[in-house]
Design goal:
8 helices; 10% strand; mainly alpha; 153 residues; 2 strands; elongated
């Protein structure tokens, strides 16, 4: 991969922190949606992502985001043995590291942003317990923030 492309994508984040760096990589709507389609819907080719995408991504946007995610080494491609012009997209280990974030985004959406009147939830077998760090952080944030936030709403 061209190191200059990768450097340009993450250059804004270099002066900040790790969260800023991660946001530069995934904080665009279409990249997250494409990852969702690959991970949860098993859509692995350009056309299958394009045709089955509920958000109606354009072919130009899909092509740009897939290239960007390959440049960032989140995805890689292999030739489809059944079709000479088709590429199959696969997650790399770096892309796999984003799966817990996508799952947490799903959980947040179900809890706080769902437009559906029908409850959707993760099966119990798919839920992840909080780490001791997360538990401590949440308790501290609850005591620091929630009383003020609830009074403001």
């Amino acid at each position: 991969m061209n190191q200059m492309i990768k450097s340009n994508i993450t250059s804004k984040a270099k002066n900040h922190c790790q969260i800023s760096s991660a946001a530069e990589v995934i904080a665009d709507h279409w990249s997250v949606i494409i990852l969702r389609d690959i991970v949860f819907c098993n859509q692995r080719t350009f056309n299958s992502i394009l045709i089955n995408n509920n958000e109606n991504i354009s072919s130009a946007t899909l092509a740009k985001r897939l290239k960007r995610m390959c440049d960032l080494e989140l995805l890689c491609t292999f030739d489809d043995p059944t079709h000479s012009q088709r590429k199959i997209y696969y997650l790399t280990s770096k892309g796999m590291d984003l799966i817990p974030i996508i799952v947490e985004m799903f959980r947040f959406g179900v809890k706080h942003a769902s437009q559906s009147s029908t409850a959707i939830s993760l099966p119990e077998s798919k839920k992840r317990p909080l780490s001791p760090f997360e538990e401590d952080l949440f308790e501290e944030l609850k005591s620091t923030n929630l009383n003020h936030a609830e009074n403001a709403i």
